[in-house]
């Protein structure tokens, strides 16, 4: 039960006003609407449609963040959120960093829960950067395939070199980006992002042919295989006996009309967190498929995927509760 998991109080607090989007502010006092946003590796990875609709009534331009790489949050923003809400995107922004690209190029190893070699990450390594840009190219091609202009921003860190930044910006432009701009929000805040903001405004004014990746009429397998081959660049998909059983049941129940919300690692384009860069000659294993009928999607589990995010031994929600007067306690 919720009491056994020690989440009853926190759940009550959340549900009390859960339908209402939260208006918060950035460090520079710009308005931010924060509502929902489950993890993009195990869910759709975007804030609520209600938050988007409210924001669109209040501002000329609304930037909504999609979790993790474009293969996770951005694909789901389009094929899950936009499909169900009817919202259409005017542009996409892909943010990358020099050290992330060098990691994908093999300059150093990055594993969850382990420290990476900062010296290798910050060391100049143009061959690794060039190779790592192949990963950026796939994300760029994927987003362009939805018929909208793409702006690439390079998040500058203190150890980055101008020639590295210049190379990535030119690489992005050569591979179809509408614009590519270095940003420096950590050191300069909003002032360090003015060039990117101007490029995004111009991109939004461009004509586009925004469309979804697949139609609702495709079968469950066809939808899964479309995402796997076109977005993850896999050679194909293999289904476990359990997944095959689920597909037959869901099709019989009419759930084959629902969209697909992949549960996969965020550490690779593939299902395997060890496969960096642009994995080749591999197939996607679908171990199970579960239904979130109320939310309107099916979520296949790719590889050894767990849908419960990691938590500390005593999570921050444990002391949260609501007293007899309706006041929230235990937050601070």
Fourth-level CATH superfamily of the largest domain: P-loop containing nucleotide triphosphate hydrolases
Distance from first to last alpha carbon: 25 Å
Count of DSSP strands:
11
Order of helices and strands: HEEHHEHHHEHEHHHEHEEEEE
* Backbone structural class: alpha/beta
Gyration radius, rounded: 21 Å
Overall helicity:
25-40%
> Which regions have little confidence, pLDDT < 50, spanning 5+ residues?
none
Strand percent estimate: 15-25%
* Order of the strands making up the biggest sheet: 6-8-9-7
Q: Could you say which overall geometry the principal axes of the C-alpha atoms support? A: globular
CATH topology of the largest domain: Rossmann fold
| Number of helices in the DSSP assignment | 11
The overall pLDDT, averaged over residues, is 94
Number of domains: 3
Keywords: ATP-binding, Ligase, Nucleotide-binding, One-carbon metabolism
Organism: bacterium (Candidatus Ratteibacteria) CG01_land_8_20_14_3_00_40_19
EC number: 6.3.4.3
Pfam families: FTHFS (PF01268)
Structure description:
It is an enzyme of class 6 (ligase). One of its GO terms (molecular function) is formate-tetrahydrofolate ligase activity. Pathway: One-carbon metabolism; tetrahydrofolate interconversion. InterPro entries: Formate_THF_ligase (IPR000559), P-loop_NTPase (IPR027417). It comes from bacterium (Candidatus Ratteibacteria) CG01_land_8_20_14_3_00_40_19. With 332 residues, this protein is of the alpha/beta class. It has 3 domains: 1-62 and 309-332, no CATH class; 90-209, 3-Layer(aba) Sandwich (Rossmann fold); 220-302, Formyltetrahydrofolate synthetase, domain 3 (Roll). Helices cover 36% and strands 15% of the residues. The chain has helices at residues 8-16, 49-58, 70-85, 98-104, 118-122, 126-144, 162-174, 185-188, 194-204, 220-230, 241-253, and strands at 22-25, 31-34, 92-96, 150-155, 179-183, 236-239, 259-260, 283-292, 297-302, 321-322, 328-329. It has a 4-stranded mixed sheet with strand order 6-8-9-7, sandwiched between helices. Strand 1 (22-25) and strand 2 (31-34) form a beta hairpin. Helix 4 packs across helix 6 (126-144) and helix 6 (126-144) packs parallel to helix 7 (162-174). The longest helix is centred in the middle third of the chain and has 19 residues, at 126-144. The chain is globular, with a radius of gyration of 21 Å. It starts with 7 loop residues before the first helix and ends with a strand.
């Amino acid at each position: 039960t919720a009491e056994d998991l020690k989440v009853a109080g926190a759940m009550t607090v959340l549900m009390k006003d859960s339908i209402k989007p939260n208006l918060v502010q950035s460090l520079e006092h710009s308005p931010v609407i924060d509502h929902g946003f489950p993890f993009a590796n195990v869910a759709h990875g975007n804030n609520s449609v209600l938050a988007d609709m409210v924001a669109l009534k209040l501002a000329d331009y609304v930037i909504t963040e999609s979790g993790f790489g474009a293969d996770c949050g951005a694909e789901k923003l389009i094929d899950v959120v936009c499909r169900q809400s009817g919202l259409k995107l005017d542009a996409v922004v892909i943010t990358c960093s020099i050290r992330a690209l060098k990691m994908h190029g093999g300059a150093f190893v990055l594993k969850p829960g382990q420290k990476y070699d900062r010296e290798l990450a910050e060391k100049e390594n143009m061959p690794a950067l060039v190779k790592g840009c192949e990963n950026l190219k796939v994300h760029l091609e994927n987003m362009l395939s939805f018929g909208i202009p793409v702006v690439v921003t390079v998040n500058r860190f203190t150890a980055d070199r101008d020639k590295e930044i210049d190379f990535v910006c030119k690489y992005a432009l050569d591979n179809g980006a509408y614009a590519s701009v270095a940003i420096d929000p950590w050191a300069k805040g909003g002032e360090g992002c003015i060039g990117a903001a101007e490029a995004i405004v111009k991109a939004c004014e461009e004509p586009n042919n925004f469309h979804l990746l697949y139609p609702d009429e495709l079968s469950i397998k066809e939808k899964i295989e479309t995402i796997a081959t076109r977005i993850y660049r896999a050679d194909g998909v293999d289904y476990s006996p359990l997944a095959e059983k689920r597909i037959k049941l869901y099709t019989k129940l009419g759930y084959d009309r629902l969209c697909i919300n992949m549960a996969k690692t965020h550490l690779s384009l593939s299902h395997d967190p060890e496969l960096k860069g642009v994995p080749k000659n591999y197939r996607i294993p679908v171990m199970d498929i579960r239904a979130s009928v109320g939310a309107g999607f099916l979520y296949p589990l790719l590889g050894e995927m767990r849908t419960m995010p990691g938590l500390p031994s005593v999570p921050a929600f444990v002391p949260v509760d609501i007293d007899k007067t309706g006041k929230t306690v235990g937050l601070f």
